Amino acid sequence: MKLTRFSNNLVPAFPSLIDRFFEGDLMDWNNWNFAGSDSTLPAVNVKENNDEITIEVAAPGLKKEDFKLDYDNGRLTISSEKEEQFEEKEGEKITRREFSYRSFQRSFSVPETVVNVDKIAAKYSDGILKLTLPKREEVKPKPAKQIKIS
Q1: pLDDT (tens digit, 9 = 90+) per residue, 55-95?
Q2: What are phi and psi of 35, to 5 degrees?
Q3: How many other C-beta atoms lie within 10 A of the C-beta of residue 42?
Q4: Does a structural domain hold residue 65?
Q5: Is residue 31 part of a domain?
Q6: SS3 for 13?
Q7: Which of 93, 97, 112, 128 is most exposed, with minimal Cβ within 10 Å?
Q8: What is the count of structural domains for the chain?
Q9: Has residue 23 got a pLDDT over 50?
Q10: pLDDT the model gives residue 55
């Protein structure tokens, strides 16, 4: 089973591209890692064994209520929107504040013929959203059958 990644949202990474243009060598493409930059696109690990597929999304600083998980027509979508609020203290003069509004959306092709979508489970702990997608019994590998010789 191979999951296909869809990313319809390239715009959040665009300001980071502009910032990089003014900060350093624009052509130094080898050192670009959007997962470690200010981009809001979280890093994802996908693991598979005989019984299930596991998707781990690195999203520190969020709460489980900040996530939205949808499954529709063979596509699993993980998204989040969060606006960070800053408190002003009495007597404090703010000369510059950049509001922070973070959002992301990651989608994966997950065929119902492979995954039991009614049993997909999600857990958020220590900044990692972990989704467990159990495989259907009919797609799990079966042990070799021993044939008796007569």
Answers
A1: 999 988 888 999 999 999 999 999 998 776 666 667 777 76
A2: -65, -30
A3: 21
A4: yes
A5: yes
A6: helix
A7: 93
A8: 1
A9: no
A10: 95
- Rounded to a whole number, what is the largest CA-CA distance in the chain? 94
In a domain, 145, yes or no: no
Tokens 């495989």 label which residue? 135
Say what the pLDDT of residue 123 is. 97
Structural domain harbouring 58: 5-85+99-138
Q: Is the dihedral of CA 25, 26, 30, 31 positive or negative?
A: positive
User: Is residue 71 a part of any domain in this protein?
Assistant: yes
Output the six-digit token pair for 76. 């699993």
Average pLDDT in the chain: 76
DSSP string spanning 88-115? PPTT---S----EEEEEEEEEE--TTTB
What pLDDT, on a 0 to 100 scale, did the predictor assign at position 8?
53
From CA 16, how far away is CA 102, in angstroms rounded?
13
CATH of the domain at 68: 2.60.40.790
The mean-pLDDT minimum among 18-22, 47-51, 56-60 falls in 18-22
- Give the predicted TM-score (pTM) of the model: 0.63
Alpha helices in the chain (DSSP H): 14-23
For residue 79, the tally of other CB atoms under 10 A from its CB is 15
Please give the Cα distance from 134 to 46 (Å, whole number). 13
For β-strands 128-134 and 121-125, DSSP reports them as antiparallel
